[in-house]
Structure formats: structure tokens, C-alpha cells
Design goal:
- By secondary structure, this protein is of the alpha+beta class.
- It has one domain (1-94).
- The chain has helices at 12-22, 72-77, 103-117, 120-123; strands at residues 28-32, 35-40, 42-50, 58-65, 81-82, 93-96.
- It has a 6-stranded antiparallel sheet with strand order 1-2-3-4-6-5.
- The radius of gyration is 14 Å and the shape is globular.
- This is Phosphoribosylglycinamide formyltransferase.
- Pfam families: YjbR.
């Protein structure tokens, strides 16, 4: 039995995430476990989730991603970031987004996450 859809396709925050994520080389979107996931071979971002230990509290505008290892400690100190349920055990972090968040920062975070999983041929197509 498939998971129920847990997002609104007309969500303007999701639209911004899609624009950024799908602008990365060879990036695709796939619905998995009822949520939009962004991939380049492997998954580099998920839209929507919950905090680890609080799976009943769904955060529909959370962006889950794989942080750059060099940035991880700083992100963990930032109170806007949290460890998500399920994927947190694999090193993922999450940030709850809003329409007025810093979209340049979101783009940098998605770029860093993409670089963690994308094949070399896709990474070489990114700007420096």
C-alpha cells in the first residue's frame, strides 16, 4: 500500500525548493513515502518531515538535506537546524523553511547536499 501524499503541490515554498533543486545538473524529483524527494542518482533532499523523537509532529515545510561535513558542526549550533526523524541517523539535518527565509542560503545548502551524493560528471557541471 503506497504512502498517502503528505504535501500540497501548490505550496509556494515547495515551488521555490523545486526551482533550486531541479536547477542542479541531472537532478530529478520523485515522490517517496508521500513526500517530494530530490535526487541525482541518490537522494540529496526531502521536503517535509519531523524532528527525531517527535514523529507525530509533522513539519510540512522542513527541508531535509546532507550537510557538508566541514559545515556540519556550525549548522548543529544554529537553532534553526534540527536532526530529522529517520534520516537523522544517517547524518542528515533539517531546516524549517518559510516564504521569507534566506533563499540564497537554501540554495547553498542544497548545492552542498547535492555534492555529497552526485556523480562526478554532474558535479563538474556546477559553477565553482
Amino acid at each position: 500500500m503506497p504512502h498517502p501524499v503528505m504535501f500540497d503541490d501548490a505550496d509556494p515554498v515547495l515551488a521555490r525548493v523545486r526551482t533550486i533543486a531541479l536547477g542542479l545538473p541531472e537532478a530529478t524529483e520523485k515522490i517517496a513515502h508521500g513526500r517530494p524527494t530530490f535526487r541525482c542518482g541518490k537522494m540529496f533532499a526531502v521536503y517535509g518531515g519531523s524532528r527525531r523523537g517527535q514523529t507525530a509532529t509533522v513539519l510540512p515545510t522542513a527541508l531535509l538535506l546532507i550537510p557538508d561535513p566541514a559545515e556540519r558542526a556550525a549548522l548543529e549550533q544554529d537553532t534553526r537546524f534540527f536532526v530529522p526523524a529517520y534520516l537523522g541517523a544517517y547524518g542528515w539535518l533539517a531546516l524549517e523553511l518559510s516564504a521569507d527565509c534566506d533563499w540564497a542560503e537554501v540554495a547553498e545548502l542544497l548545492d552542498a547536499s547535492f555534492r555529497q551524493v552526485a556523480p562526478a560528471r554532474a558535479i563538474t557541471r556546477l559553477p565553482e
